[in-house]
Amino acid sequence: MLADAPGPRPAGPLDRFLRLFSDVRPGEGLTAVVLTFNIFLLLTAYYVLKPVREGLILGQGSAELKSYMSAGMVGVLAIAVPLYGRLAARMPRRRLINIVTAFFASCLVLFSVLGQLGVPLGMVFFVWIGVFNMMIVAQFWGFANDLYSKDEGERLFPIVGFGASLGAVLGAVIAGWLIAPLGLNQLMLVGAGLLVAQVPLTNYVDTRERARSQTMAARTPEPPKEPDLAPGKTHETPQSAGAFGMVFGTPYLLMIGIMLLCLNWVNTTGEYILGSVIEDVAREAITAGTAGGLSVEEFIGQFYSQFFFVVNIAGVLIQLFVVSRIIKYFGVRVGVMVLPCIALGAYNVLAFFPVLAAVRWAKTAENATDYSLNNTVRNMLFLPCTREQKYSAKQAIDSFFVRIGDVLSAVLVFVGTTYFALGGSGFAIFNILIVSGWLILAFFIGREYTQLTAIGATPGP
Fold first, then answer.
1. Average pLDDT across the chain, whole number
2. What is the C-alpha separation between 333 and 327, in angstroms, rounded?
């Protein structure tokens, strides 16, 4: 873990400036800022691509198809997560991150070429971007968890998380500007460029913190942090059962996985409600000639770019001025319960008013909190974990368990639309039931986190 050098050091200008937003100690500011810019570029890339995803899947398919395609994500992740776990166990973290990032960037170039050739990409791109988002972001936070101790993470993650919130805003703005002049296929190349641009930042931080750890080890009798692995070596022990085995064999990790499953089940069902409403509105606008010359795909993409912009502006403000204060004064134990409380209120509203304005603003409140406070807190939950848990188990939880929530939402949508003709109100009522269980889980997870960090323990069977 990172540690300050022995003896007092004066805080630099950057450290003093960052203290406006969180408790930054001398020497911590530069790494925190570089990590912030790193996740900023990642989330900018994702939010450039997200309206592309919505436009393709809703324009070439439907809101129901969007829900059902989550099953495809789970099938891909069932293969990808164990493979990633084996790579993480055998590669140095820098090489791992570079290889995975290069793979995803290459896929975007290929998609752009295929799209320009007229190949229908709606279903394939929807599955791909769901896998991309889960794996690339989980990888970044695994890296950040590997760098920071529990104390450092609680103080500095709110600053790093600001980069994610700001990147989401800029990505939505860029997509809104460029959809009309460039089209959806060219935006894929913009996303690929942003993805490649953040790689040198990861490499710089890795080099800097290795050098800093070696310097600290030379100046203090304390044993240095376990070095990263060389090629051919592995973190796995004979008792290791892989990423999924770690999750199912560790109650704390399993509770986090189930909580994120519930979170995404609720969120994806809410996205279906919003998607079905805007799909109808778009087709009505095209028929009435009020779409400004846009196609159905472009009308939907433009709506989502504006929606994401508002959501992410709210997320930035929450991240900048609220998150660090909630963590400082109330702790992770309270922070992890905030989003389910907001979701409970949002879906109570939608149960009575499932119209576009109400759906849009209920989802804005839910998503803005999710992308800021909840995103920061959920990554803090891994601070007491072992290195193998931070990379392999976290990848399984942040991707596979989250996408299982998508599958359950798809099942709910299929049953609700096929057999019960549920409207927006019916789906909102079902979400209220899930949120109630999610809130209970969040309480127990927060309590377990507090107990683990109080005694300096790591999660185990």
1. 82
2. 9
